[in-house]
Amino acid sequence: MVAERASTRRRNRDAATAERLAGWLRDYRSFEGIPDELFDRSGIPRDYWLDFLGDVAEYSEEEFRGRFSLATRHIRDTGVSYRIYGEENERSWPLNPLPLILPEAEWAQIAEGVEQRANLMEALLADIYGNAALVRDGVLPAAALTGSNDFLRAMRGVKPVGGRYLQTYAADLGRGPDGRWWVLDDRAQAPSGAGYALENRLILSRAYPNLYNRMNVHRLAPFFDDLRKGLAAAADRADPRICLMTPGPYSETYFEQAHLARYLGFLLVEGGDLIVRDGKVYVRTISGLKRADVILRRVDADFIDPLELNGASQLGTPGLLEAIRDGGVAMANMPGSGVLESKSLLGFLPVLCRRLLGEELKMPNVATWWCGQPRERAHVEGKLDTLAIASAFGAVDPGGLFPQPRLLSDLSPAEAADFRQRFIDRPFDFVGQEVAHLSTTPVLRDGRLEAAPFVVRVYATATPDGMRIMPGGFARISDRADARAISMGQGARTADVWVVGDAPVPRVTLLGTQEDVKVRRVTGMLPSRAAENLFWLGRYLERAESTLRLIRSLCTSLMDAEAGIHTTGETLERVERLLIDGGALDKDAAGERALDAARDALHDVDASGSVIRLVGMARRAGASMRERLSADFWALLVRLETRLVEGRTTVRTEVDALEQVESALQIIAALSGLAQENMNRTAGWRFLDTGRRIERGINICRCTHVLARSGATIDDLDLLLDLADSQITYRARYLIGLALVPVRDMVMLDPFNTRALAFQLVTLKQHLALLPALVDDGMLEPHARILLALATQIETGDAASLDATAIQGFETELMRLSDAIAARYFLQGANAVPTIKLAGLA
């Protein structure tokens, strides 16, 4: 069927398309003796690749660039990224415009082999942390396990909640020279990449929607549905709370973790978000402590509990191991499962498969010899110049020479000498492996089709009905023309994996059908950390906006225009004073040229209150709970920071500075509009808006104190109205011109002016009234008491009696309110308290 359809489409192609496709195939050069995905062993292009490439060849150069630029724009705007370990900044996701295509018949064999291997790993863990029969009977040397840092003695005899040690498993596969698929590495600690596979699919299916549907590409959604059901089945409640435990925003794969949490509906938590009480695990939320039933962990086991494991860890939760032992939480994967990633085990797997499953191993791994045994050590010693050397236990590599398998010929003389001495002293720390040569797949580079080596990661997840395999995966394609598996690593690109079939594929999503979904209107719970980040995101954006308005006044003071007259002389000095008080300018900058002051306030990265610093802090706050921000909001936030960074060298005149200020203000206005119109009115939105309201109130108090004091000039009052965005309203209300008392009333006491202090307090009362209370005793909590007293003062206040002392008092109370909100809702350390409900049922 596939071949017939492809043949028909080839006959119907026009001459230009046929010539372009022929040129691609004619210039394509695969590696000698290495299997290729495009051409079969006889040198004939495979039909499914011809089907795909023939359609791509129909696109003009401009249309193809447009299609993939749409995909790359999605990567940029939604922040699809990764981080190299040790780097602070994220890197944009490197996606290949062509997928890796595999027929479903071949994929069935891959899935069968990966499923068997996942079952073998589960049985192996059950023995390692159970009765240890393999070690007792001499089938597996104890040193092959205990040499690994990932072997956790504390987990011996611990039965996992739900009955499974491995909820997720992944295998890195490569096609060897004989055309068979080989396992290069096992991933059992906390397999990463499934979220990136999902994102790759989203991007490419948008770039080639017709091709994607016509080629009957198998959907990924059923796998993720199985993952969610498998995790839910491990809990002891019918409607469990499932958390995805992340190392935090500086993790190399934080984007993927946030994307998975959002897609699957899990709660993204860090170690500090969790607390152990009475053998159970709870999430710190704005409503108190809420039970965590299942944790899908992406934190390495050694870091999850600083009380029992790595005492220096700041990524874990004290007492978490004890809760696991007590059966108080289901953990996927169980701590200690990372021992399966040790290369020391690879040579024993065929025997272990026969022993544990009663079957022959269907998918072999790269031939590996662990040097902890005399015969194997002798074999490796005799072939040191031809075998790849790797650490037997991953992280246990004191010299740091073998994060990946390496040939001795790739080492410097000093490194080779160091290795040989270490090999003599501790041979059991090393394995020797045959050098695997990978097959190649087509990539498009500079309009040419080229062959590139690849590795594909295939995922398995446990369900009540057995293991399920993702029909696709996460492919890494080397940018180097070196087909050795040992050369894969940094510099690789990624690709979507299409498993294509003959029959149309059902369009399955994670959305339930009308029959199996119970209608609910609960808003979900908000972790304290997320609430805090939303609160400060609102404050940073509002602070950046107020600073931009002050800079705009500086810029207009340089222009020969009526709008700039009010920012001259003493009034201009007061603008600079406000910028200095806000940390946007150094105090020594007072009196410098207005253009220089504007440039510094915009772009000085060393100034705590500069716009570029404030926007950077807003972006970091947003990055810490990216799963709660829409793609549009995140894209605008990233665009705002990018424009400020790019504009640091382009401010040469006041016009340049003003253009940047206006552009930034427009983006912030768009962010505010998205928050108001696109965010559900849940607690998260309320904390975001609460942060904005408190910051706006503090800012208007500071501006009023400086510009509307006794003896204020017309220029001062005019500037205050401009900063409060109240010029039009004032002039429509008062025909007599500017006067001190009406201006004070409008910016401080008017509850109908959205920029006035009174309006901020009215809005804050509405927000806090709808946030949860911890104790239902009818008494006001401290933050509510502060707000009520302040709001009463404003509601009963008189503009004529407002003086500097009163205005400063309002500012002080707003800061007290901020501290009280933090103490109540941003639960950290010992101040985390349960709700009035029984904590075990929460």
TrEMBL record:
Pfam families from the UniProt entry: Alpha-E, CP_ATPgrasp_2
Domain (Circularly permuted ATP-grasp type): residue spans on this chain: 99-477
Species assigned in the record: Glacieibacterium arshaanense
Domain DUF403: 526-826
InterPro entries, per database record: ATP-dep_Glu-Cys_Ligase-2 (IPR051680), CP_ATPgrasp_2 (IPR025841), DUF403 (IPR007296)
Protein name: Uncharacterized protein
Lineage summary: Bacteria, Pseudomonadati, Pseudomonadota, Alphaproteobacteria, Sphingomonadales
Gene3D superfamilies: 3.40.50.11290
Superkingdom per UniProt: Bacteria
